[in-house]
Amino acid sequence: MSHSKCKIWVHAVFATKDRKPLINAQIIATVHDTLRKQLINTGCFVDCIGGVLDHVHLLFLLNPGKSIADVMKQIKGGSSHAFNQVKLTSVPFAWQTGYGAFSVSESHVPRVRAYILNQNEHHRTVTFMDEFNRFMAHYGLPADENG
């Protein structure tokens, strides 16, 4: 091959520190817009962003020149810094240290997109920890006992 080709879809999910319900209706658009800008700044294509009061989901194409760890560090650190610069919340904003990042096959992108964009409905019956531990089980990873 004369050129390298890469297309890796990532479904990422991460929570606010201590899963505090900080992302209310008044700021959710700002939170999502800032995360989108941070992802674009890493060279990733952003498909969609969704979430509820205490966590977000992102679907994006990974920039082949970046590691997932570098992308997540940039978007989480950059967004929390931006939120705190403008005092977006009444308390200092922070994301939890960890995150989940899962590969998505091309054929499953529409289903994952619908799932991300339907978070409000989904979380009427499922807690964040139940949801996250289902991801862990699906991907054959140990459950997160600490949240």
Topology:
Layout: E1 9-15, H1 28-41, E2 45-52, E3 55-61, H2 68-85, E4 100-104, H3 109-117, H4 119-122, H5 128-138
Antiparallel strand pairs: 1-3, 1-4, 2-3
Helix pairs in contact: 1-2
Low-confidence stretches: none
Which secondary-structure class do the elements indicate? alpha+beta
Give the overall pLDDT as a whole number. 92
Largest sheet: 4 strands, antiparallel
Reading side by side through the largest sheet, how are the strands ordered? Answer: 2-3-1-4
CATH topology: Alpha-Beta Plaits
CATH class category label: Alpha Beta
Q: What is the fourth-level CATH superfamily?
A: Transposase IS200-like
Percentage of helical residues?
Answer: 25-40%
Distance between the first and last residues' Cα: 44 Å
Output the radius of gyration.
Answer: 15 Å
CATH-level-2 architecture: 2-Layer Sandwich
Tally of DSSP β-strands:
4
Label the overall shape. globular
> What's the number of helices?
5
InterPro entries: Transposase_17 (IPR002686), Transposase_17_sf (IPR036515)
Domain Transposase IS200-like: 5-119
Protein name: Transposase IS200-like domain-containing protein
GO molecular function: DNA binding; transposase activity
Descriptive keywords:
147 residues, alpha+beta, Alpha-Beta Plaits, four-stranded antiparallel β-sheet, 18% strand, DNA binding
